[in-house]
Amino acid sequence: MKNFEGFGLNAVLTASLARMNYAVPTPIQAQAIPPALKGRDIMGTAQTGTGKTAAFAIPLVEALLSSPHGSALVMTPTRELGKQIMDIMHQLLGPQSPVKTAFLIGGEPMGKQFSQLNRRPRLIVGTPGRINDHLERRSLSLQDTRFLVLDETDRMLDMGFSVQIDRILKYMPAKRQTLMFSATMPDNILKLSKQYLHNPERVAVGSTVTPVQNIRQDVIHLSAAEKYNELLRQLGERDGSVIVFVKTKYGTERLAKRLNREGLRADAIHGDLRQNRRDKVIRDYREEKYRILVATDVAARGLDIPHIAHVINYDLPQVPEDYIHRIGRTARAGAKGEALCFVSPEDGKKWQAIARLMGIQTEDAAVTPFKPKSRNKKRGNKPFSGKKPFKSGKPHFVKRKDKSKNKKRA
Question: Is the pTM of this model over 0.70?
Answer without folding.
Answer: no
